[in-house]
Write a structure and sequence with these properties.
- With about 140 residues, this protein is mainly alpha-helical.
- The chain has one domain.
- Helix 2 packs across helix 5 and helix 2 runs antiparallel to helix 6.
- The protein starts with 9 loop residues before the first helix and ends in a 15-residue tail after the last helix.
Length: about 140
């Protein structure tokens, strides 16, 4: 199964979006800045742990920030082709990450995200400094 989407409860997502909309002015810019500063850290960790055969998947790992939607995207974002199979890295990253019937999972993306979203991480400290300590409280989430 390709690693191409994350599903969530729509009600909680709406409540979280409302939290963001009602937060103080300028927060979007501060959060985007934290995300821009953290993107390279996420990618370095992923690249350090990604299994390497041809190196195509490792080279395809990048990050980007969508400032309007306040989203940090990390993963296989470039259109690099595996020289052995001709397959785009962004198409087979899910098979490597989640495993197949022949090869077990090697969750290098989720491991990097988990490492850098722990309460003590620089990413989370940056978000707290950006002024969003109470974001997510309405969805039952814990305070950052």
């Amino acid at each position: 199964m390709p690693f191409d989407r994350v599903e969530t409860d729509q009600g909680q997502l709406r409540a979280l979006i409302l939290d963001f909309k009602t937060a103080d002015e300028g927060m979007n810019g501060r959060v985007a800045k934290v995300m821009r500063q953290s993107g390279p850290t996420f990618v370095r960790t992923m690249r350090a742990h990604v299994p390497v055969d041809t190196g195509t998947l490792k080279k395809s790992l990048h990050w980007r920030v969508n400032r309007q939607k306040i989203i940090l995207t990390v993963g296989s974002l470039k259109r690099n082709k595996n020289p052995k199979t001709g397959m785009l890295a962004m198409k087979y990253v899910g098979y490597v990450h989640d495993g197949t019937s022949r090869v077990g999972p090697r969750p290098f993306i989720s491991d990097a995200v988990n490492k850098h979203t722990s309460q003590q991480s620089g990413f989370m400290r940056g978000l707290r400094r950006a002024g969003i300590a109470n974001i997510g409280r309405s969805t039952g989430g814990s305070r950052l």
